[in-house]
Amino acid sequence: MGTSIARPLISKKLIEIAEEENADAIAHGATGKGNDQIRFELGSYALNPDIKVLAPWRTWEYSSRADLINYCDKHQINIEVNNEDPTYSVDENLLHTSYEGGILEDPSKPAPQEIWQRTKSISAAPEEGENIQIDFLNGDPIAVNNQTMSSSEILNTLNIAAGNHGIGRLDLVENRFTGMKSRGCYETPGVLYCLKLIEL
Question: Which domains does the chain have, with CATH numbers?
């Protein structure tokens, strides 16, 4: 959910900026294989049916992340990766971090430990548990350890605490809207922690 829930907000902001700038087109960087192209485009068209949506991955002559990295290098566009690094697709927001691509496309290979940024492995997690009190009001968390917090502060706090104890790693193969199967590795410690509490 961490990826899909973010796309309508991004689409909304793209449309708002396009209208402020009197632009007749927007662009997204989603590939032609995944679900994000559909999320971006349907969200954008729902808000502005007349907007033109450019999808370079789908319409330009790029067949790999390496091609796009080379394009960025050629045009002096500063990005955080290069072709010597493992090229994973990383998506991160308050709810989760997701990783796809590279070695992860082979489901027989374990995910490399270095990809995990928010969660410790079980073997690296503390031996001792941690007591965390969460107060709910009408089904919504409102406080952690008797300290009232906003929703984002609660998620940040739980992301750190749960991730420190190895909670929130998911490694799975899923069906994309296009019919392709795709392996994704996800870290969602705070959300998973809250969901488990609600189930109790």
Answer: 1-81 (3.40.50.620), 88-200 (3.90.1260.10)
DSSP strands (E only) in 18-88: 25-27, 52-54
pLDDT tens-digit map of 93-112: 999 999 988 888 888 999 99
Beta bridge partners of 90: 99
* Beta strands 147-148 and 25-27, pairing class: unpaired
Tell the residue number behind the tokens 């009408």, with chain if given: 138
Please, what is the end-to-end C-alpha distance for the chain in angstroms?
21
Q: In terms of Cα–Cα distance, which of 97, 95, 94, 161 is closest to 126?
A: 161
| H-run or E-run covering 174 | strand 169-175
Q: Is the pTM of this model over 0.70?
A: yes
CA distances from 53 to 56, 117, 178, 191 (A): 10, 33, 19, 32
